[in-house]
Amino acid sequence: MDPIIEAVALFLGFVSWTMVGITIPNRYWKVSSLDGTVITTSTLYENLWMSCATDSTGVHQCREFPSLLALSGYIQASRALMIAAVVSGTFGVVATLIGMQCSKAGGENYVLKGRIAGTGGVFFLLQGLCTMISVSWYAANITQEFFNPLYPGQKYEIGEALYIGWASAVLAICGGVCLMFSCKLGTEKKTAYSYHPTRETVYSASASRRETQSTYGKNAYV
After folding, report:
1. Taking phi first (over 0 means left), then psi (-120 to 50 degrees means alpha), and beta for anything else, what does residue 97 get?
2. Is the domain 3-182 a CATH 1.20.140.150 member?
3. Alpha carbon distance 52, 63 (integer Å)
4. What's the pLDDT tens digit per position in 87-133?
5. How many CB atoms lie within 10 A of CB 129?
């Protein structure tokens, strides 16, 4: 595998893994459309863990969600998917570092190192898919509530954290695909040569055998 492709894939995977770590604690997963109105609470925003509000004086107040079981199903699923993305990205970074050709961790067996690097690509791809599903599912619920005229609760818009999550997913998928399709995952191929003796070779071998037998017969009784 080209070391440049390995370095680029590792860079993409590491950046995407870092962006996932930024996305999870970001408070702006969804933001209210009340910003700028002349009321006490000017902005409402939420993430997977808490709900916050900012009044007209700039004072922030946050309240964590009281119960996990009382949350909506998509929030619970998004939490699980984002945690799985962080874990997968961690394994992906470690496996890619070990499987790179310039790394001494895996020894000199480049076939094994290629397989390890390919496994890192699988982890990066899994990280990207988990992040993409989590962020897209969360955004779909925001838009569904926003455009529903019969929805009685507070309507929100897509926050900046979701855009960071989408960018992270794209980078992780690109890095994983580069590693999966560029690494040497198979064993070393050996070219098989078939031997087909010619007629001259057969005659030469027969003549040599007769001469050997004749010599042995002459010297047997000396």
Report:
1. alpha
2. yes
3. 6
4. 999 999 999 888 887 766 656 776 777 788 888 999 999 999 999 99
5. 18
- CB count within 10 Å of CB 94 equals 14
Query: Contact 12/174 with Cβ under 8 angstroms?
Result: yes
At residue 40, what is the residue type?
Answer: T
CA 136 from chain centre, in angstroms, equals 17
Structural domain spans, the chain: 3-182
Overall residue count recorded for the chain in this entry: 222
Using DSSP, state whether 198 is helix, strand or coil: coil
- Say what the pLDDT of residue 43 is: 83
Instruction: Note the pTM of the prediction, 2 decimals.
Output: 0.75
Q: How far is the C-alpha of 119 from the C-alpha of 98, rounded, in Å? A: 11
Is the pLDDT at 202 greater than 80, yes or no?
no
Rounded alpha-carbon distances, angstroms, from residue 187 to 41, 106, 114: 64, 16, 10
Neighbours of 27 (CB within 10 A): 19
Q: What is the strand order of the sheet 50-55 is part of?
A: 60-64, 50-55, 41-46, 30-32, 156-158
Q: How far is CA 88 from the centre of its chain?
A: 7
Question: Up-side HSE of residue 114: CA atoms within 13 Å toward CB?
Answer: 14
CA distances from 60 to 34, 50, 64, 93 (A): 15, 12, 13, 36
State the CB neighbour count (10 A cutoff) for residue 132: 19
Cα three-residue angle 22-166-152, rounded to 5 degrees: 90
Q: What is the pLDDT of residues 53-77, one digit of tens each?
A: 887 777 788 888 887 777 888 899 9
CA nearest to 168, candidates 3, 19, 6, 14: 19
